[in-house]
Design goal:
Elements: H1 2-26, H2 45-62, H3 64-70, H4 74-88, H5 96-127, H6 133-151, H7 154-163, H8 177-216, H9 224-238, H10 241-251
Length: 254
């Protein structure tokens, strides 16, 4: 009885293989193929312009992360949060992913009014075909320039104007955008370092107090950071540190 069962199973398996093979032969599997790629002559000048626009758009998309970082409030926020983590001495808590994610969402919160102006003044009219592409670009960059000029220091702006060897601009509208961006980044880094210095002070005082107590008790071999870390976390929680830091960051943009 057992031998018959094995034979039946073997015949069933062979029959299924033959059935599948027959179906495969009767209906061959259609595999996608890649068409030929090449370069030919353009019959119309408009086709060349469209290709150039596509290449320009792809270049802009590849530079989008850098533009998001360098022309928004992201730089100041992420530097300050990094200083905060180092001052507390919590190593990788919060992690880099959390700091970058929090910085991005705070950036979206701060930059929303600016992006709404870009959408209202440039994107929507361009989609409705009421303005040209050049007008949309000019209108879209105006709110971003206004935001950067409101945060940049005159000293930093004057530095890059002098380095570019351009004529002294009569007003802010005459300053090129490529001159405003590096001046804005330098100003953001300076402000972030100032805020980071203020954040370091209370934690540094706590480290000094703990180190003095340990030395007075004769525990010179015990690292002060190991003892001060719980007190830093407790102090930060009691004073609502996250609310103070984030609130100060948002308010620092006016």
């Amino acid at each position: 009885m057992m031998v018959m069962t094995k034979k039946n199973v073997a015949l069933l398996v062979v029959g299924m293989i033959l059935l599948v093979a027959g179906i495969a032969v009767a209906e061959p599997l259609a595999l996608p193929t890649l068409g030929s790629l090449g370069m030919g002559k353009s019959a119309k000048p408009g086709e060349t312009a469209v290709v150039i626009q596509i290449l320009f758009l792809m270049t802009v998309l590849s530079l989008a992360p850098a533009l998001l970082i360098m022309t928004t409030s992201f730089t100041r926020i992420v530097v300050v949060l990094s200083f905060l983590r180092n001052a507390m001495g919590t190593q990788q808590a919060p992690s880099n992913q959390i700091i970058i994610g929090l910085s991005l969402f705070i950036t979206f919160f701060i930059m929303t009014p600016v992006w709404q102006q870009v959408n209202t003044q440039a994107l929507e009219p361009f989609k409705a075909q009421t303005i040209s592409q050049e007008q949309a670009l000019e209108r879209g960059i105006a709110p971003i320039r206004k935001f950067m000029l409101s945060q940049v220091r005159e000293k930093d702006l004057a530095l890059f104007i002098s380095l570019s060897k351009q004529a002294r601009p009569k007003n802010a509208e005459d300053v090129p955008t490529l001159t405003i961006i590096p001046a804005f980044i330098i100003s953001e880094l300076r402000t972030a370092f100032q805020i980071g210095f203020l954040i370091y002070i209370p934690f540094l005082v706590l480290d000094m107090v703990v180190a003095s107590v340990l030395m007075s008790m004769g525990m010179m071999m015990l690292p002060p950071a190991m003892i001060s870390l719980p007190f830093k976390i407790l102090l930060f929680v009691l004073v609502d540190g996250w609310g103070l830091v984030i609130g100060s960051l948002v308010k620092s943009f006016g």
